[in-house]
Amino acid sequence: MDAVILVGGLGTRLRPLTCNRPKPLLPLANRPFIERVLLSLRDQGVRRAILAVQYLGEQFRAALGDGERLGIAVQIADEPEPRGTAGAVRHLAHTLRGTTVVLNGDSLHDLDLRAMIQSHRARAALATIALTPVADPSAFGLVETDAAGRVRRFVEKPRPDQITTNLINAGTYILEPAALELIPPDSYQMFERDLFPELLRRAAPVYGFPSDAYFTDIGRPAAYLQVHHDLLLGRTRFTPPGREIMPGVWAEGDVAIHPTALLGGPIVLGRGVRIGPHARLVGPTVVGAGCVLAENAVVERAVLWAGCRLAAGASVLDAVLGANCQIGERTSVEQGAVLGDGCIIGDDNHLSRGVKLWPGVTLGDEAIRF
User: What's the whole-model pTM score?
Assistant: First the structure.
């Protein structure tokens, strides 16, 4: 079976993290996010994944190649112009082989895809939509089904009196070729606004597949940080990379940890990490390859990408650092702050309350207290 992964977005809501890389290639516990998606597809019987790409396609090729390393065939398909979610898949229809899985490249879930495919085939559906429950459905598009699971209607951002279900579209579909043929070729089409309503107008068999499995997306920095917490705290299926070198601490390759450093997991350390005297790490935390934490540095509930350096007494709490950031002595980065790649922050600064710095920003000593 084939899968199409929609990875064409610019990831604007995740900037500055996506200024230099597409959202599906952001590291998730030190591995590209898209790798987790591909491995999940492989393990559930998908043999080939086609990535519909618009932004920085060459990075996908460099990171994934032909997929041999991951055990699943990978094809990168460049979109010359935006076509929408359904239009992008329609553009690839001539290369697809029968029933096809379609999913968003920025969603993370533990969906039982095999069971969804089985349900799709048992009902002779043209389209099956994965559905997930939410506590407050008012901000989402609801998918209303009958007792047999057949989709009756879609309700976009309902008023309180319109809420008849808490199930929303989870962005994963099983589609038959006959459904794709209804999408006008070379046009901008969306699944939720165009194809699915058209299928309902034609009384075609469209079914929902409700699942209470873990589901989220990484569309914003806060969500990106939260996904790491969920992974390390066991809220979704996850096997930490590397080996467990002490209770709750996993390391990929060799790391150097000073005997006086304090580590309280869950923590993932990349290859070549160095942790100095009296440094303190508290999980859930991920530290990328080659990071250096000097004496008395503190990292709590944070994500550091590869190559970051924290000087003596620096702290990163509930924040994200892009690759190769340098944090000066006694500087604190906390409360949802996000730094793009290569930021250099001098001594005695304080960055907090969701502040964002674009890649390459340099701040001198005592430059900001926010």
Answer: 0.89
